[in-house]
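Give me the fold.
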Amino acid sequence: MRINPFRALLPHLEKIKSNDTFFAAVKEEFPRFAQTAYFESREIPALYLCSIQSVGHRALGLVACAHVQDYLQGAIKRHENTIPAKEEVQIRLWKEQMAMIKPVLLAYPSVPAIEAWMQNVANKQAPHLEIPFPAEEQTYQIWEITDPIELQYIQELFTAFVPRSYIADGHHRCSSSAILYEQTLIHGNVDPDFLVALFPSNHLNIQAFHRILEEVSWTVDELLKKLEPYFDIEARTSAVLPSQKFEWGLLVENQAFRLTWRRDFLEHYHWEKAILDTQLFNEVILPNVFDIVNVRQEPRLIYVEGGKGMAHLQHVQQLKPQRVAFALYPVNLQEMMLLADHDQALPPKSTWFEPRMKNGVVVRPFPI
């Protein structure tokens, strides 16, 4: 796939009192921040190497511009369907901000030559920016690459060894970029590029998206009876994360259970390329147990990011009476890629990738 350097806006760290507060506010406050010189304009087109260091984990990726035709022609693979109303909101926000303040997160199968190049840049140069986020125990480091030889080399590596990448976060930003591109074609002001952060798949982690249902008025015994045709059910003394695929956690009232899908039931899906727990939740549990058919328009359904842990899920479940929580096992990255390669969409809120870049760390202003 094609990657291009661009003229970025980078934050003026010396003007920022609290990184955690400032970057959390960028999405709403970017026009004001830009007008009051919280961002500097870089005059030379560049690519940006980005290191995201968390407790026990470091991810190294590249911030660049991708060409919208790679998305339209399937080199940038999607695994979720988009909603037109959200695309309209995204385009309106971009036109107000005149910038893309958060890159689309793209995952690609690891390429040793690319990883070696990134590590070499990080080892031999001091970062242009280092941004600590104390509240999250996370540190960003940003290297600016402007040398023409280096730029040509890494562009050629991506062209040769990365025929496709996969959207990990930002489906609506991708589709909105394509719509905006088509609009600029009509007016003759073509802008084919959009901001992306490309990370090797082995540098990213997939967390689960757990589910909570409100207004479930059955007793615990009544709920378990409705679930028995699909699961082997085991009572637990405390809430425990699922340890493998097809194993779920159930939290209802002050009780915890482990649910394991019955193998004879899973045989009905043997012809599928991949069977996902989120798919089973939407296609089996919601309609047959809770009489819910349209998952996208169900107001009683709440999604909770798995990275926040079971204690957080249990806390949210117990905030209101008559809430039931289902803890799911994370989707396998290879299964996500397989389904995307076959142009199949995952159910909504199937994956939560970490780490994902924060708003405002590297900004791409729109051409005027």
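The longest strand covers residues 57-67.
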